[in-house]
């Protein structure tokens, strides 16, 4: 029996892990180096601070794997989903949140829990005893990363993660832009008008691409390589892959009608999503970038409606380190060479806020069972959580392992269903129905063991 679980890192995964363990009756210490040790991307010392997008992506739990993961975390009483629901912003079918109140609420909830304490000190070694979860995310400190590399005998893999810029709403020209969610998606008028759209003609688009390709970019240090995760590509990298790539990606014009000129379809559209409850800040959707600051201002002001844009935050780029989990972690998320240490969150090779938090939820429950001298059964790989952890701890090819978002391609097929696009709706509904039953059954076993 172990009395206290120690968690290194107070991001999405660390916060969720702490909440799960504390509510299962165990003591937890969160070790968070911020604000004493700052990072490139963080602005505060709050737990669960959102450093990139303010979106948890789709909230559809019947047709989308991310939405299903939302459902599973809610069913497990997760703090990240509960708090996100409290600070929800209009975003069509997505779950977007007011980032600062969200982090402040998570911080207040965790620090007021009688089983949780927080230590604002950096941990830079791998502990030899006690129960630990390392949930340091993409910005793991260099000393701790070196300690992990020394222990595993292999260099951690790395790619580069880019951050999108945020603009003050009152600096956007609404005589050119309009409010509309793609395909008018949403149950309320607020949801159906959740996105701000800036239209481009073909001439506008071609000029924008030329400026983007010519702009000054951040240079990498000698020996570094830019192995980007495809779900978070800088826009200039997408543009380098082909002049039409952006027009079929974040700038696609489909499902939108310009209220200022409804007869003419835009050639491309730049979308912005509300970033806070006041509606004073908007982030440019899908516009992660590694352009230098001066170049960003010049290029983004070419967008119709943003000619006089005032930026609350410009885009940036940072190194994102993750483990080769299929070779280093067992199916209980433990480091094979040091089984008193689990890893959770983005450092395990999952991508996205939701996926990171889900791995924290699972690591917390597994650790809590260990602390009681028990072992939880494996999460069924028919669930979103189980499919994800199965992938990173053995389902993926270690030689080509890259960060992964949850998706239905990770799920075992449901027998007897039609394949291909025509059968997709029925197939996804079958996946989610099966997952919900299996997740509830696993949760029931997990909770019963804790009683």
Write up what this structure looks like:
By secondary structure, this protein is of the alpha+beta class. It folds into 2 domains: 4-156 and 323-450, FAD/NAD(P)-binding domain, CATH 3.50.50.60; 163-319, Elongation Factor Tu (Ef-tu), domain 3, CATH 2.40.30. It has helices at 12-23, 65-75, 79-86, 99-111, 142-152, 189-192, 202-214, 235-240, 293-300, 325-328, 353-371, 384-395, 424-450, and strands at residues 4-8, 27-31, 55-58, 88-89, 94-97, 116-119, 131-134, 157-163, 166-168, 178-179, 195-200, 268-274, 281-284, 311-313, 316-322, 334-335, 338-343. Helix 1 packs parallel to helix 11 (353-371). The longest helix is centred in the last third of the chain and has 27 residues, at 424-450. It starts with a strand and ends with a helix.
| End-to-end gap | 16 Å
* Helix/strand class: alpha+beta
In CATH, the architecture of the largest domain is 3-Layer(bba) Sandwich
CATH superfamily of the largest domain: FAD/NAD(P)-binding domain
By DSSP (H or I, 4+ residues per run), the number of helices equals 13
Q: Given the C-alpha coordinates, what overall shape results?
A: globular
Strand percent estimate = 15-25%
Largest sheet: 6 strands, mixed
The multimeric state of the shown protein is single chain
What is the total tally of β strands? 17
Mean pLDDT level: 90
SSE order in H/E notation? EHEEHHEEHEEHEEEHEHHEEHEEHEEHHH
Low-confidence stretches: none
Q: Largest beta sheet: what is the strand line-up?
A: 6-2-1-7-17-16
CATH class of the largest domain: Alpha Beta
